[in-house]
Amino acid sequence: MNKIADNRAWWLVLPVFILVAFSALIPLMTVVNYSVQDIFGPGSAYFVGTEWFEEVLGSDRLQDSLGRQFLFSGAVLAIQIPLGIGIALMMPTTGKRASLCLILLAIPLLIPWNVVGTIWQIFGRGDIGLFGWGLNQLGMDYNYTSSTVDAWLTVLLMDVWHWTPLVALLCYSGLRAIPEAFYQAAEIDRASNWAIFRYIQLPRLKSVLVIAVLLRFMDSFMIYTEPFVLTGGGPGSSTTFLSQTLTTMAIGQFDIGRAAAFSLIYFLIVLLVSWLFFTAITHLDRQK
Amino acid sequence: MKMNKRKGFGITFYIVLLMLPIYWLLNMSFKTNQEILGTLTFWPQTFTLDNYITIFTDPSWYSGYINSMIYVSINVVITLLVALPAAYAFSRYKFVGDKHLFFWLLSNRMAPPAVFLLPFFQLYSSIGLFDTHVAVALAHCLFNVPLAVWILEGFISGVPKEYDEMAYIDGYSFPKFFVKIFIPMIRSGIGVAAFFAFMFSWVELLLARTLTSVDAQPIGAIMTRTMGASGIDWGVLAAAGVLTILPGLLVVWFVRNHIATGFALGRV
Question: Which of B86, B120, B267 sits opposite A13 (nearest CB)?
Fold first, then answer.
């Protein structure tokens, strides 16, 4: 659609601009302000320049949780994307069964994040949870509150349970957009299932996969509530991810300067990725 | 044919696995605490509704649901009111800085809520909104407004521009055209945007918990607080969890064909 150039359109955008400026710009400026000062109390703040940034960047705490965060997000992508594509390929294509499938798949996405944590907290317990009990019955020594490996596996499994349906739903809607004629042509060519997947379905899924990868990256990068409820970040700090480290620093210890510097570094990483995201989708939009 | 059977088996197997944790939660919510802690049973031996009765009769429990409902509703109303005109502008007009503004909106959806925690807390405290429903509703606009703009922009771009022009020729003023003609035309888009604003506000806890203490406390915060108390009342906790799943489940049927659109920021 060709758009009309008219700067009066700003009047229509103004409410959004004011609202988002209020809830994003003012807070962000506050963070910037804090990150360059050392505050002892009202009226006694000292300008310290980049000291907080240097300290935070050099601290083990940030580096450790950043490392854990990248490991987690990487694992999430490596598992959920292929699994989601596989599920989308298996889903029925028409009729009541397709609708039913869509809704059942969407259920985990509609559950409040703390309840997702609660569900897995219960489900994974050796005494009252089906999953933990089952593994213990099979002779495995599974306990997510004491073993680092078990805690990691449980958090990962929880995230796979929670978010793989999103990847599957996106791929499903991508697959539905492929014209029937493509499959008929493949049938005439006697293409194998693998060839259909590799040369028809996969290329057509490219744009939804870009969105899926980046959404999953972003959301797993911001994960807070689910592991907080499930493991509380433990055992030790083995499942403490970036958001939780930051929250403890800002609200728990009220370490404002350090938390603010941390926030800005965190936000810059996310902003960089969302810029890549935006460039990728506008590029794909143009190709259409 | 054989292929289809295998696919059907695969998807059924996956959905059974997907439903297992939910079945377990539902199962526990109908049990007494003695049974939960005593033996592992796949079906409630002594079926009880006590856990649900506790929630519906104890104000400290059910007020959590009411609080969540209130701020979620306020959020949906604010989101739609500001997002509709903006989405129309993005879809129909070119104006100075439109692309930058669009990206800036997106970047807010991508901002980790933890980054905004402390400033939000101080901002809303300083203007006297701390522990009110409005504070949470406004804070959730941070990610819901960009999402709604993106979803609505997609739906609005699907309406031919000729309708707008015809309305002008017929002598409609812009506000009258927008309310009387345009909004009814994109009502399914508004429904989808409202659903996703509702949902993302309903599932969020970090901001909602930080911005409230007593009067506007969401159900999620009440659930985590109960865990810290002397021993855990597993049955009630499970029942509370089941009740938080219901609202989404009741309305998801209406948007089933647009689920992917909403989760993908309107880009599918």
Answer: B86
Which chain A residues are within 8 Å of B141, Cβ to Cβ? 19-20, 23
The CA distance from A114 to the nearest CA of chain B, in Å, is 6
Q: Are strands A37-41 and A44-47 parallel, antiparallel or unpaired?
A: antiparallel
Q: Would the CB atoms of B95 and A10 count as touching at under 8 Å?
A: yes
Is there a contact between A130 and B220 if contact means CB atoms under 8 Å apart? no
B219 contacts in chain A (CB < 8 Å): 112
Task: Please report the number of interchain residue pairs, chain A to chain B, with beta-carbon separation below 8 angstroms.
Answer: 282
Lookup: tokens for B207: 């901001």
Query: Rounded to two decimals, what is the model's pTM?
Result: 0.87
Name which of B119, B138, B245 is nearest A111 (Cβ-Cβ).
B245
Domain ranges of chain A: 64-287
Adjacent-strand bridge partners of A4: B93
Q: Where along chain B do the CATH 1.10.3720.10 domains lie?
A: 59-263
Residues of A in contact with B19 (CB under 8 A): 104, 107
| Percent of chain A residues past pLDDT 70, beyond the cut | 97
> Taking residues B211-218, what's their average pLDDT?
87
What tokens appear for A57 in the block? 């960047």
CB contact under 8 A, A12 and B85: yes
Contact assignment for B145 to A266 by CB distance below 8 Å? no
| Whether the Cβ atoms of residue B234 and residue B36 lie closer than 8 Å to each other | yes
DSSP percent split of chain A into helix, strand, coil, nearest 5: 75, 5, 20
The residues, any chain, with a CB within 8 Å of residue A183's CB and separated by 6 or more, are A196, A200
Q: Exposed, middle or buried by CB within 10 Å (0-12, 13-18, 19+), for A83?
A: middle
End-to-end CA separation in angstroms for chain A = 13
- Using one digit for the tens of pLDDT, what is the confidence trace for B91-113? 888 888 888 888 788 778 777 88
> Which residue among B37, B142, B244 places its CB closest to the CB of A115?
B244
pLDDT less than 50: residues of chain A:
none
Q: What is the ipTM of this complex?
A: 0.85
Report the CATH superfamily, name and number, of domain B59-263.
Answer: MetI-like (1.10.3720.10)
Residue with tokens 């000292």: A46
CATH superfamily of A64-287: MetI-like (1.10.3720.10)
Q: How many C-beta atoms surround the C-beta of residue B91 within 10 A?
A: 19
Cβ–Cβ below 8 Å for B21 and A169: no
